[in-house]
Write a structure and sequence with these properties.
This protein is an alpha+beta fold. 40% of the residues lie in helices and 17% in strands.
Length: 53
Amino acid sequence: MLIYERVREVRPDSTASAIRAALAALHKRETVEIVRRGAYRLLVIPEAYRTDT
């Protein structure tokens, strides 16, 4: 699933421009990469992430 789509599911009141700005900032910090127009891939796993195992 695309990051943008997931954000829209979790925070439906977020504007498209706010999501794009946040993704641009994450890209600048090399946290995500641009796969294609409108599609980003997470490069860094957040420290707070825990698996179910």
